Amino acid sequence: MQQSLWVTGTHQYGRAVSTTRPEPKILEYVPKADLDRALEEVRQLREKNEQLQRENERLQKELEEARRSLKRQTAPFSRRKKKANPKPNGRKSGAAHGKHHRRPVPQSVDETYKAPLPERCPCGGAAIKDQIKPQYQEEIVRKKIVRQFDVELGHCACCGKRLQGRHPLQTSDALDAAQVQLGPEALTLAVHLNKQVGISYGNAAAVLRMGYGLEVSRGGLCRAIARMGKKTEPTYRALVKAVRQEMVVGIDETGWKVEAVLRWMWVAVSEQITVYAILPGRGFAQAKALIGEDYAGVLVHDGYSVYYHFAKALHQSCLGHFVRRCRELVEIVSVTAAAFPLAVLDQLDKALAVQDRYEAGEISLHGQFTAAGRIESQMDQLLERHYQTKANRRLAKHLAHEFPHLFTFLHCPGVEATNNRTEREIRPAVRARQLCGGSRTWNGARTQQNLTSVLRTCQKQGKSSFDLIVDLFRNPQSIILDLLPSSLSPPGGPKLLAAPL
To answer: Which of 446, 75, 19, 397 lies closest to 228 in space, CA to CA?
Structure first.
């Protein structure tokens, strides 16, 4: 629209002044409902803007603290601030004290000593004996034993083949340059120090030197432990075969370097068996190499997509991962958006409570199945809704994908709801990785997986891994240790000799 100009005839300081009449404003009518809606949107946007500003300030503060903490000398796990009302140290009084424990009385005594009364009391009076009470002391003896074996050498009168004698306490037939060796118990202690306790070869050699006066190099221990890794190979293969036939198996993986390249350590866990495998990848090919492509039991895992390629297996996705995710989501979203993760948490808690009640004998198996149906129906209703918050939509999508595998433990008694057992079994590998960073060679990786599988399985079954490995060191051949279920044990018993390595 063209504007009209009116030029006045007045002058100011000798110049003509022109004026422009502004066009009158036109007010457009807006319905009150639309106006209220627009005002409400403005209010919500302002609140969201303020919330984002507060969140930005909080994150910037945390980032700054994290950067500064890297330059401090304080340990990364320090609390920095004391609790307002900390609990007192030591045992609690009253009923909170818990069960009293004390060391059991030894079954046998090797040495006996007398602790006589003093002749007189410090006050000068004569001492009178009233009774005798025993006290026991369990001690280790720092003593190095040197054994000499006079090995007889000869030949066969018929074929002329060289023959050599062997004593049951020997661990090797080597002579001449390798005639001085460590005994089986010293080597077994080194195996436990390195593979179970998690100390380096150098520190294990220091323990043998300081505690028992045994001089050994790191390389010598490494080679000895590698020999033991080869001798446990038949037992390891038998454990892999056994875990494939278990009804319930937990599976997980973590990073492990071999030759300074990232590889993966897998673990398969049943109630009585733990098997590790260091493999080059993290795909289905590696998973089936551990538990078999046709595994048809129940797999308990963290929901990694590779595990669902086991088409014949039932699956239990870890509820612990969803519980943690929902709790974290509640802390970062708005109060309105937190309703969905809180509702999911409520259903998961109900499911876990139902399992606890069944195991305590409070409800029957039919009652557990009925409760499972109600929980699944309520969870399904939650997932049918549409959620405005992006984080809630992602959580709902994840739950919808895992929904068929969330409550398997309620339909299959004996199945755990989480993969906590598997994560506990993989923790020793994480500690070992922090110590050594991985394996220098693939031979070292095989030694690691074989020995850790045997040691963890012994620990789960309550068997003495020390005695079993000492016996294996002394045996001239590799044997299958007594760690298998009765249905899978060799027909000749655990001492059945395998083919020499």
So the answer is: 446
**Could you give phi then psi for residue 268, rounded to 5 degrees?**
-120, 130
CB atoms within 10 A of CB 337: 18
Q: To which H or E segment does residue 314 belong? A: strand 314-317
Tell me how far apart the alpha carbons of residues 452 and 458 are, in angstroms, rounded to a whole number: 10
Burial of 81 from C-beta contacts in 10 A (0-12 / 13-18 / 19+): exposed
**pLDDT at res. 27:** 64
Residue 264 contacts residue 286 (beta carbons within 8 Å): yes
- Concatenating the DSSP letter of every residue in 443-475 gives HHHHHHHHHHHHHHHHHHHT--HHHHHHHHHHS
Which tens digit of pLDDT belongs to each residue from 131-159?
888 888 887 777 788 888 888 888 888 88
Please write the tens of the pLDDT for every residue from 42-95: 999 999 999 899 888 888 888 887 777 665 554 555 556 677 787 777 777 777
Boundary of a domain, candidates 228, 250, 277: 228
Residue pair 242/273 in contact by the 8 Å Cβ criterion: yes
8 Å CB contact between 39 and 52? no
Q: What are phi and psi of 50, to 5 degrees?
A: -65, -40
d(CA 184, CA 56): 62
Pick from 286, 276, 284, 290: nearest CA to 310: 284
Phi and psi, residue 53, nearest 5°: -65, -45
Residue span of the structural domain in which 372 resides: 319-411
Residue 195 lies in a domain: yes
Residues of the chain with pLDDT under 70: 1-27, 69-81, 486-501
303 contacts 287 by C-beta, under 8 angstroms = no
Instruction: Give the 3-state secondary structure of residue 263.
Output: strand
Q: How many domains does the chain have?
A: 2
Q: Which of 371, 259, 246 is nearest to 313 (CA)?
A: 246
Residue 381 located in a structural domain: yes
Instruction: Judge whether 448 lies within some domain.
Output: no
Domain end residue (candidates: 376, 411, 446): 411
Transcribe 410-450 into DSSP letters.
HHSTT--SS-HHHHHHHHHHHHHHHHH-EESSHHHHHHHHH
Q: What is the pLDDT of residue 478?
A: 74
What does the pLDDT look like over 278-309, one tens digit per residue?
Answer: 999 999 999 999 999 999 999 999 999 999 99
Cα separations in angstroms, 25 against 4, 21, 28, 29, 32: 15, 12, 10, 13, 21
Instruction: Report yes or no on 472 lying in a domain.
Output: no
d(CA 365, CA 398): 29
Give me the pLDDT at residue 417, please. 92
Which residues, in sequence order, are CB contacts of 216 under 8 Å at separation 6+? 182, 190, 205, 208, 209
What DSSP designation does 196 have?
I
* pTM (2 d.p.): 0.73
Name 274's Cβ contacts closer than 8 Å, sequence gap at least 6: 267, 268, 425, 453, 456, 457, 460
- Residue 62 is predicted with a pLDDT of 83
